[in-house]
C-alpha cells in the first residue's frame, strides 16, 4: 500500500489556482522530492495532504486512509516539518516535546534526546531566543521523535548550516532504510539529487514530471560531460589532446566542500 | 484534552499576576476608601437624576458592596475580564496560527474540535482563577481597611462576571472560524463587547429603547453583589457561551488553515 496516493488533487483559493490535478504515489521507504520554485504549489500540496487545507477536487489517501475523513488517524503515523517552523517565542523545545509526546502517547523521549545530541539542538532555551537554523533543528526533532512511518518535510534544510544539512541528509537515508516514506519539498536541487529516489516537478500548480533521479539526469545531461579526478596535479594540455575533447578545465572545489574539510573529524572529538 | 488544557494553563499562568492582581488591587483600593467617602457619596448620589442612577445601577450608595458594584462590577471588571476572554481564545487559535504552533499541533493526532474545546476550557479555568484572585485581593483590602465588605457577596459579584466573559470567549471562537488574524478576532469581538454595554446603557437611559437591551448580555448580568446570583441568568448565559463555542468549533473545522 502506498504511503501517499493522490488522484486529481486540486485546490483553488477562490478563482486563483493553488494546485490542479496532482497525481503522485509515494511508496514506503521511498524518498520523494517535490521540486519547484516558490509559489509553484509545493506547500499547498503538503497542507492539503495534512488536511490543513480542504481540497477543491480530487482525493488524497495516506496509508490507504482518506486524508480528510481519517486525518487524526493518519497524523498519528506521520511526522511533519512545516515550511516556516514556529511554536511561539516563550516556549522551549522541551515544553513543546512534553506536550507533543503526551498527544502522541509517546512515553520514552530517548529518540528526541538522541536527535538533539545529533543536531546539537538546545531544548531548554525559549524558541524566541534561538536562531532560525536552531529553531529548524527543533522542528526536525518534533517531526521525528516518535519514529513516524511517513515524514513530510517542507524546505527542511532552510537555515541549517552545511554540517547540519549533511547530518540531515544522513538521517533521511536512515529513516528511508527503516521503511519510512519521506516526502521532501525543496528548491535545493543538490540535496534532492543526493537523497531522493524520485522527484516530482511542479510548475504553476501543475505536476509536469515525475521521474527517477537517474532517469531525469540522464535525459538532460546527454552524457557529454565527464568528471575525472587525478591523484596529482594534472596537465590540462594532455587532457585536451584526447580525441573528441572540446573543452577541459580545472574544477574548483565548492565553498561547501572547503568548509566541510575544516570540520571533518570534529564531530568525533565533540561526541 | 487534559494535556492541551494543562499546557495552555501553564502558558497563561501570568494572567493571575497581570490581570487578577491589578483588578483585585483596584477593587481593594475602592473598598478601602469607602469608609472615608461614604457620607459625601450618599449626598452626591441623592442629587443625581433618577434616570442616571437607574442607568448605572446606583439607586443608592449606602453600603460598600453597592459602592464596589458601581465603581468596578458594573463596568470595569466585566469589560476587562470579557476582553481577557477574547484575548485568551484568540491567542490559543489565531495566535497559534500566526506563530506556526497550530501547524505543529495539527500535525499530531488531535482533531480541530478537541483543540477548540481545550482552548475554551482553558479560558474558562483561567477566567475563574483571575476572578478568584481579584476577589481575594479585594477582600483582603476590605479587611485591612475595616470596610466591612461581605466576602460572600463580593464572591457572588465577581463570580457573576464569569458567564458573561465566557460568552465573549464563545464569540471569539466563532470569529476564528472567520479569520485567523488575532487583531481581527480581538478587535471585532471587543467591539461587540463595548457595543453590548452601550446598548444596555442606552436601553436603561431611555425606556422607549428598552427593547435594545434584549440583544445585550448585560441585560442578564444584574447586580449579584447586592441581589445574589440569578441562577437562570448564570446558567442561561453559560449555556449560550457553550453553544457559540460549539458553533465556532464547527466553523473552525471547516475552514482552511493557510500557512
For this structure, the quaternary state is heterodimer
Number of domains of chain B: 1
Structural class of chain A: alpha/beta
Specify the number of helices of chain A: 11
CATH architecture of the largest domain in chain A: 3-Layer(aba) Sandwich
Largest inter-chain contact set:
A-B, 36 and 24 residues
Q: How large is the count of helical segments of chain B?
A: 13
User: Regions of chain A with pLDDT < 50 over 5+ consecutive residues?
Assistant: none
Termini separation of chain B comes to 25 Å
Number of strands of chain A: 11
List strands and helices in order, with pairings.
The complex is a heterodimer of chains A (271) and B (259).
Chain A: E1 4-13, E2 16-22, E3 25-26, E4 31-35, H1 42-49, E5 57-62, E6 65-66, H2 71-75, E7 78-81, H3 93-104, H4 110-119, H5 132-144, E8 150-154, H6 162-177, E9 181-186, H7 189-195, E10 198-203, E11 206-212, H8 213-221, H9 236-240, H10 255-263, H11 266-270
Helix pairs in contact in A: 4-5
Chain B: H1 2-11, H2 15-46, H3 50-55, H4 64-73, H5 76-92, H6 94-99, H7 101-105, H8 112-145, H9 151-159, H10 161-176, H11 182-205, H12 224-227, H13 231-254
Helix pairs in contact in B: 1-8, 2-4, 2-8, 5-8, 5-10, 5-11, 8-9, 8-10, 8-13, 10-11, 10-13
Overview of this protein structure:
- The complex is a heterodimer of chains A (271) and B (259).
- Chain A has 271 residues and is of the alpha/beta class.
- Chain A is built from 11 helices and 11 strands.
- In chain A, a hairpin with a 2-residue loop joins strand 10 and strand 11 (206-212).
- In chain A, 37% of the residues lie in helices and 22% in strands.
- Chain A folds into 3 domains: 4-77 and 148-221, 3-Layer(aba) Sandwich (Rossmann fold), CATH 3.40.50.300; 92-142, no CATH class; 236-270, no CATH class.
- The longest helix of chain B has 34 residues, at 112-145.
- Chain B has helices at residues 2-11, 15-46, 50-55, 64-73, 76-92, 94-99, 101-105, 112-145, 151-159, 161-176, 182-205, 224-227, 231-254.
- The mean pLDDT of chain B is 91.
- Chain B starts with a helix and ends in a 5-residue tail after the last helix.
- Chain B is globular.
- Chain B is mainly α and 259 residues long.
- Classes of the chains: A alpha/beta (271), B mainly alpha (259).
- The A-B interface holds A 43, 47, 50-54, 71-73, 75-76, 78-80, 82-91, 95-96, 98-100, 102-104, 139, 142-143 and B 3-4, 7, 10-11, 95-96, 99-101, 103-111, 254, 256-259.
Amino acid at each position: 500500500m502506498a504511503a501517499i496516493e493522490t488522484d486529481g488533487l486540486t485546490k483553488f483559493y477562490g478563482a486563483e489556482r493553488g494546485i490542479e490535478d496532482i497525481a503522485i504515489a509515494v511508496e514506503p521507504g521511498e524518498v520523494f522530492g517535490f521540486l519547484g520554485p516558490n509559489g509553484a504549489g509545493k506547500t499547498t500540496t503538503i497542507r492539503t495532504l495534512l488536511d490543513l487545507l480542504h481540497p477543491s477536487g480530487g482525493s488524497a489517501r495516506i496509508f490507504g486512509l482518506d486524508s480528510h475523513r481519517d486525518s487524526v488517524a493518519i497524523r498519528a503515523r506521520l511526522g511533519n516539518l512545516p515550511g516556516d517552523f514556529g511554536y511561539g517565542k516563550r516556549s522551549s523545545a522541551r515544553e513543546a516535546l512534553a506536550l507533543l509526546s503526551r498527544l502522541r502517547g509517546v512515553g520514552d523521549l530517548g529518540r528526541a534526546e538522541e536527535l538533539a545530541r545529533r543536531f546539537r539542538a538546545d531544548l531548554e532555551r525559549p524558541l524566541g531566543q534561538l536562531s532560525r537554523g536552531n529553531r529548524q533543528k527543533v522542528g526536525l526533532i518534533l517531526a521525528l521523535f516518535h519514529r513516524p512511518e511517513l515524514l513530510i518535510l517542507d524546505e527542511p534544510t532552510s537555515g541549517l548550516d552545511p554540517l547540519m544539512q549533511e547530518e540531515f541528509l544522513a538521517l533521511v537515508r536512515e529513516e528511508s532504510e527503516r521503511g519510512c516514506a519521506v516526502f521532501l519539498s525543496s528548491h535545493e536541487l543538490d540535496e534532492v539529487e543526493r537523497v531522493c529516489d524520485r522527484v516530482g516537478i511542479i510548475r504553476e500548480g501543475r505536476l509536469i514530471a515525475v521521474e527517477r533521479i537517474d532517469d531525469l539526469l540522464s535525459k538532460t545531461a546527454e552524457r557529454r560531460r565527464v568528471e575525472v579526478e587525478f591523484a596529482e596535479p594534472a596537465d590540462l594540455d594532455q587532457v585536451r589532446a584526447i580525441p573528441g575533447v572540446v573543452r577541459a578545465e580545472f574544477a574548483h572545489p565548492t565553498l561547501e566542500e572547503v568548509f566541510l574539510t575544516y570540520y571533518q573529524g570534529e564531530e568525533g572529538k565533540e561526541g | 484534552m487534559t494535556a492541551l488544557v494543562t499546557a495552555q494553563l501553564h502558558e497563561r499562568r501570568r494572567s493571575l499576576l497581570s490581570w487578577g492582581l491589578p483588578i483585585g488591587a483596584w477593587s481593594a483600593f475602592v473598598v478601602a476608601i469607602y469608609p472615608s467617602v461614604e457620607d459625601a457619596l450618599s449626598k452626591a448620589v441623592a442629587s443625581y437624576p433618577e434616570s442616571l442612577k437607574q442607568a448605572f445601577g446606583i439607586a443608592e450608595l449606602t453600603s460598600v458592596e453597592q459602592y464596589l458594584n458601581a465603581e468596578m462590577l458594573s463596568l470595569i471588571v466585566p469589560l476587562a475580564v470579557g476582553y481577557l476572554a477574547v484575548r485568551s481564545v484568540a491567542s490559543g487559535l489565531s495566535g497559534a496560527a500566526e506563530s506556526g504552533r497550530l501547524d505543529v499541533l495539527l500535525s499530531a493526532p488531535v482533531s480541530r474540535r478537541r483543540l477548540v474545546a481545550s482552548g475554551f476550557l482553558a479560558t474558562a479555568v483561567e477566567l475563574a482563577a483571575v476572578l478568584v484572585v481579584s476577589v481575594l485581593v479585594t477582600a483582603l483590602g476590605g479587611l485591612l481597611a475595616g470596610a466591612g465588605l461581605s466576602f460572600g457577596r463580593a464572591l457572588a459579584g465577581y463570580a457573576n462576571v464569569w458567564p458573561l466573559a465566557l460568552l465573549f470567549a464563545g464569540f471569539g471562537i466563532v470569529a476564528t472560524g472567520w479569520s485567523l488574524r488575532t487583531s481581527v478576532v480581538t478587535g471585532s469581538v471587543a467591539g461587540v463587547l463595548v457595543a453590548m454595554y452601550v446598548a444596555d446603557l442606552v436601553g436603561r437611559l431611555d425606556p422607549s429603547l428598552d427593547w435594545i437591551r434584549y440583544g445585550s448580555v448585560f441585560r442578564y448580568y444584574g447586580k449579584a453583589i447586592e441581589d445574589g446570583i440569578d441562577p437562570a441568568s448564570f446558567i442561561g448565559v453559560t449555556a449560550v457561551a457553550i453553544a457559540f463555542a460549539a458553533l465556532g468549533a464547527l466553523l473552525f473545522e471547516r475552514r482552511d488553515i493557510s500557512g
